[in-house]
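User:
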Amino acid sequence: MNRVEQIVYLVNERPGIRYSEIMRETGLKNGVLSHHLSKIEQAGRIIIERTPRVARLYPCGMPQQESIIIKNLRSPTAQKILSTLLEKDLKFKELVSRTKKSQGTVSLCLKVLCEEGIVHRKLENSISVFQLTNKPLLDSLIEKHRLSFIENSANNISDIFSSL
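Assistant: Predicted structure:
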């Protein structure tokens, strides 16, 4: 498999893969990978979502709602919140307890998930209750990409250690 096909294969198998993950998987240097990604993107085979901190790559034709969910599933905290909400709708304090994260971390993550339309916040007796907006889609994406999310968690840990 040539370099271009290897890159396209990785993006198709692991939508939302980060630039650094592709560099690590392929062994390509930064400039070489950047060159190939530019050519593949121009050819319309992948979409690159660039943010100030990270570039994520998706296959062309992936619906935007799916790419948004996948991006969030690649965050360990968001993944835990979403998988917990698959079980049932929960109050904020229940989510904090189940995720074992600080209130601030859960609050910030929920804010993003609500803004992106993945989670809906409703008030019940003046208490915030959170629910998924599309459980079947989330469930199918978790099942379809389970292995790549597990690999992503391992890559996040290795990134932390390599930056020390």
